[in-house]
Amino acid sequence: MMKITYVKVAASMMASGVMSVSAGSGDSAKGGLSGKEVVCVVPELPACSQRQIQPLFSRYAQTTKKWTLRGSYRSFKDTELQEIEKFDGSGVDLELTAPLSERWQLRLYYPVYTEGDAQEIATGDPVDVDGDGGTLDYPSLILDYQFKQASAPGEFNLAAYLGMGYALDHLDSENQITGTHDRINHRGSAALFGVKADKQLDHCWTFIGNLGGRYYWDSDDIHPNEGSDQFFLLDASVAFVYAPRDAWIYPMIELFYQGSFSDYNSLQVVPQVIVPIGEHVDVNAGVSVGLLDDGPETDARVQMTVRF
């Protein structure tokens, strides 16, 4: 009967999932390696990607290690603002993230262009909307501070952010019946604040969650439910991404809420796919579907992220 008296494991073998076990009698164990050798195969842990893959809405708590430029195109349907409804259109925005230190980073967000067709609430007339800027978003400068760093897999990264947004341009609304023009979002200021979290889960899944708000102490014709020019909106999102190393494509699912818990509530589920291109570029595509009466009915987005 064979008796195992000692085990020798090479680090390189463990990395490859193979364990070498030397076995023999007591005498052979004392005298050398003359016993039989048993090879045990150890299951390998999945190798996961180290890329910081950006969802469409959520942002990582972990400070970025490289300058990151994100450009996004969106095509939305059935959005409502203070004076127009049934707004079907598209828009482009940019976001630049600059790491300042191990725990601090700065984000510059800029809504570049928005255009589309809508219906004037007061008259029911069709209107054409276009201009430099966004709908609910202003050009914004945001400072992030990571106050907790994960020291091992399974621990959370946590961060807080604070920013300001200010309207620099406006959208022009042209009544297609009368030819009259109205300016939308030509003035406004907003405070942005919140917390962020991310965590490496088992089997190459990553959790990313954000909880924050925006307070508009001045705005023009953008309240999503025909209310006051001064209002507050809560922004909350969670995302789960599956990212094994060297994969051709990464699947992701995201849930995004925006609202006030009273007169305006938008909830969107956003399935996404991310395609890595080389070491520095990701392309993300997804279509959000509105689950409640408020907010866009659908919102298709394509996002490119470049790290340099």
TrEMBL record:
The keyword Signal applies. It comes from the Bacteria. Keywords: Signal. Residues 1-23 form the signal peptide. This is Transporter.
